[in-house]
Specification:
With 123 residues, the protein is mainly alpha-helical. It has one domain (29-122). Helices cover 70% and strands 8% of the residues. The chain has five helices and two strands. Helix 2 runs antiparallel to helix 5 (82-108). The chain is elongated, with a radius of gyration of 18 Å. It starts with a helix and ends with a strand.
Amino acid sequence: MVRIVACFLAVFLLVGATVCAQPSAEPPPLTPILHGFASFVLPGLGQYLNGEYQKAVVHFVIDIGIIVGSWYLARALPWYGWWVTGTAHTVWAAYSAVDAYQVALRLEGLALEVRPTGVALRF
């Protein structure tokens, strides 16, 4: 477990150093990160902050559907574990966060590019 955390931390720091190492006149705004984090905590909130109101409702309804549907499955199927609910919710929240982050970057006039040589933040 310690090795997994260490590997995750190393990758996180490497990606952060790659993004921060790009020359820029000013630091990138904090808004895309806040919108992505808000959407990870509550799927749809980042989309709402970006001004995508219909998409925000869809993301929130799908998240509620995952939670309620998992509750019904857990009551009906004795072998169904709650870890499935947590995994499905986390995957959906991560997708929602990435979507909110990418849209906020586009609204700020920025783009996140993934290349074979690394990750770059284009202005």
